[in-house]
Design goal:
Number of helices: 1
Number of strands: 18
Strand order of the largest sheet: 4-8-12-16
Shape: globular
Helix content: under 10%
Radius of gyration: 16 Å
Mean pLDDT: 82
Length: about 180
Amino acid sequence: MTVVQNKQYVYLKGEGRSKTIVASMTIHGSVEEAVLMVLADNFIAQGISFKTCSINVTGYGYITAQKRVLPDLGGGYVFKLCQVNGIGPTYLGRAYGPYSRVLYYKCKLSGIIDPKGWDAWQFQGKESQLTYAEVGCEGDGANTTQRVPWEKSLSQDEVNNLIDTSFIDKEGWIGNQPIIL
């Protein structure tokens, strides 16, 4: 299933986490291989369990390139309870904007992750503005001892804010759905 770019504000609702189960969801390097491909902004899935959710890296590169141009803008990427594997090495992300924000939360990271983890890309010298973090991750790629020195250590309040549904609902679009979430 593909949610195309011009179909924003899509809400996919299941009958409950124990009733609606996607047995396998793998994000591959090509669109044709993905079970679920979301190209649009403001997408949410609720009441659905993904038994096997993984990102399959197909070679050297970056998993994310997040763009945030002002510090007070919302947005960012949060990967929660996912698996990252495949062929590497690969970076967890690179800055595509001066205030990029990416969090990997309780993910299983295989040994394909480049030990540096992150790349400031065109924003070298402005790393203090970037928010790149890993919290509670495990696996061979989760060793942060060789990560870039500017990787953030987030407070529990900051983590809670990023993993909460309200983080993706700053504009109130979820609350404005015709059904109660």
